[in-house]
Design brief:
This protein has 101 residues and is of the alpha+beta class. It has helices spanning 18-27, 31-40, 48-60, 96-100; strands spanning 13-16, 65-72, 75-81, 87-91. The termini are far apart.
Length: 101
């Protein structure tokens, strides 16, 4: 997914929490793989409503885009692109709010 023409939106600066890196390392999953899935529109294990909100944000060019991926049993990693596409955060669910500030 290195071809920007295949991306649905810009990721901006990528930020990954230490805890997410630790979980991904334990699961043997590269962060790039999840960023690639996120930007391609494979938003993982999210509710239908969230999927539709993501599509609206992509089509409008503004709004948060959120993904969640089960990477280690029930442990999920969340990927969130900011409304202005300046940053994309990868973290555990309980860390996301703190990292948005």
């Amino acid at each position: 997914m290195d071809d920007p023409g295949l991306n649905l939106f810009a990721l901006g600066r990528k930020v990954i929490s230490r805890n997410a890196l630790a979980v991904l390392g334990e699961a043997g999953t590269e962060p790039k793989r999840l960023f690639d899935r996120h930007v391609a529109g494979d938003w993982g294990v999210i509710e239908d409503k969230s999927w539709h909100l993501n599509r609206i944000a992509v089509d409008a060019g503004y709004g948060c885009i959120a993904s969640a991926y089960a990477v280690l049993g029930d442990v999920r990693v969340v990927v969130l692109t900011q409304p202005d596409r300046s940053n994309t955060i990868m973290a555990l669910p309980d860390e996301i709010e703190k990292l948005q500030d």
